[in-house]
Specification:
Helix 2 (20-31) packs parallel to helix 13 and helix 3 runs antiparallel to helix 11. The strands form three sheets. A seven-stranded mixed sheet has the order 2-8-7-6-5-3-4, sandwiched between helices. It has a three-stranded antiparallel sheet with strand order 9-12-11. A two-stranded parallel sheet has the order 1-10. It is globular and about 55 Å long. Strand 3 (122-127), helix 6 (132-139) and strand 4 (143-148) form a beta-alpha-beta unit. It folds into two domains: 15-42 and 293-388, Aspartate Aminotransferase, domain 1 (Alpha-Beta Complex); 50-288, Aspartate Aminotransferase, domain 2 (3-Layer(aba) Sandwich). The chain is built from 14 helices and twelve strands. The protein has helices at 9-12, 20-31, 50-60, 75-89, 105-116, 132-139, 164-169, 188-201, 230-233, 258-269, 277-288, 292-314, 338-349, 375-388; strands spanning 37-38, 99-102, 122-127, 143-148, 170-176, 204-208, 234-239, 252-256, 327-331, 351-352, 354-355, 366-370. The longest helix has 23 residues, at 292-314. The chain is of the alpha/beta class. Bound molecules: pyridoxal-5'-phosphate.
Length: 394
């Protein structure tokens, strides 16, 4: 018989996995032979561009790449990141001290809490939000204070709503624009407000810019680091995952405040040994090579976005088209929770949508649809919803 081992408090404190029930229902349907179309998964469906794959193949054959890399990342990789920031945002970064490589930005987002949060410390976390912000903080023993992102505030946190005693206690704040799951974007006014809030209360800002290159209608999302004072108060997490369809490759970076970058690098040197150099070379190719694949991908997502939003609006929603990310965040019709509506859509249409409740307690009135499904299948999903659910009311 297996021995019973008591799990550590930090594991027990992680929030319960909220999609367990819907995943069980999906499996039951699939097992029964129902053709399920999932609009739930936020993972690019298109392949990594060829020139990046070719670089990996070439570098994989070079023996020097087979050894342990440096955990901060090759200087050539960090230089490519710094050059990309200069070209794209006009941001100057010292590649040696202001950029650290990550095994995907998720890894750094989870680990930054171990660098700056002691047990019991307060961290400001958006709700809804990417679950790793709270997850990393909880693993470090800290207490998330959730900042609600509300439709009437364009899904930006209202910093003036944060009680002064909470702001004084808080050590760190996570923000993420273009935003997963709401698709919201942020501009100069918001970032300037964040920077002055950070200075007033001595709060380290961690901005997650994973979707800065997934934008539409000619909109170019900014970097947090391009605003005056940003580098003095924080860092930005980013990766090649969404920009070049490289989610499986696991390579990203954190950039900005040099002491924060150093602390994250020092923590990582005690945990991992960096990313395979061949993968770093491939990411360099992505960042420095021709960007036409990115433009092409934006076009594909934009067409899907238009089809999706127009179809939902023809069923009674009144959605605006998101300017960035590959997500559409929509309210559930009257009489439903996000979970009961997701179950209805699965049951009646064989379509998977993501209940908002998985992204925070403030988000039960919403669901998320990802644009990472080919057009024909998406159209079929929408037709099934129209036919079997029909007009909705709010
Ligand atoms: C996809 C995503 C990331 C990127 O994760 P990687 O670890 O770099 O692949 C980061 N933040 C958010 C909000 C995301 O949705």
């Amino acid at each position: 018989m297996n021995m019973q081992f008591e799990q550590a408090q930090r594991i027990k404190r992680l929030p319960p996995y909220l999609f367990a029930r819907i995943e069980k229902l999906i499996k039951e349907k699939r097992d029964a032979g129902v053709d399920i179309i999932s609009l739930g998964i936020g993972d690019p469906d298109m392949p990594t561009p060829d020139y990046i794959i070719e670089e990996l193949q070439k570098q994989a054959e070079i023996g020097a790449n087979h050894q342990y890399p440096s955990s901060a990342g090759m200087l050539a990789y960090r230089k490519a990141v710094a050059q990309w920031y200069k070209n794209r945002f006009g941001v100057e970064l010292d590649s040696a001290s202001e950029v650290v490589s990550l095994i995907g930005s998720k890894e750094g987002i989870a680990h930054i809490s171990f660098c700056y949060l002691n047990p019991g410390d307060t961290v400001l976390v958006p709700d809804p939000g990417y679950p790793v912000y709270a997850g990393g903080a909880i693993l470090a023993g800290a207490e998330p204070y959730y900042m609600p992102l509300k439709a009437e505030k364009s899904f930006l946190p209202d910093l003036s709503d944060i009680p002064v005693d909470v702001a004084r206690r808080a050590k760190m704040m996570f923000i993420n624009y273009p935003n997963n799951p709401t698709g919201a974007v942020a501009g100069e006014e918001f970032y300037r407000e964040v920077i002055s809030f950070a200075k007033e209360y001595n709060i380290l800002i961690c901005h997650d810019a994973a979707y800065s290159e997934i934008a539409y209608d000619g909109y170019e999302p900014p970097s947090f680091l391009q605003y005056p004072g940003a580098k003095e108060v924080g860092i930005e997490f980013h990766s090649v995952s969404k920009t070049y369809n490289m989610t499986g490759w696991r390579i990203g970076w954190a950039a900005g405040h040099p002491q924060v970058v150093e602390a994250l690098g020092r923590l990582k040197s005690n945990i991992d040994s960096g990313q395979f150099q061949a993968v770093q070379y491939a990411a360099i190719q992505g960042l420095t090579g021709p960007q036409d694949a990115v433009l092409q991908m934006r076009k594909v997502y934009q067409e899907r976005r238009d089809i999706l939003v127009d179809a939902l609006n023809s069923m009674g929603w009144q959605l605006e088209k998101p300017k960035a990310t590959f997500y559409v965040w929509a309210p559930v019709p009257a009489g439903y929770t996000s979970e009961s509506f997701a179950e209805l859509v699965l049951d009646k249409a064989g379509v998977v949508i993501t209940p908002g409740s998985g992204y925070g307690s403030n988000s039960d009135g919403f669901f998320r649809i990802a644009l990472t499904m080919e057009k024909e299948r998406m159209i079929e999903a929408l037709e099934r919803m129209k036919k079997n659910i029909g007009m909705v009311e709010f």
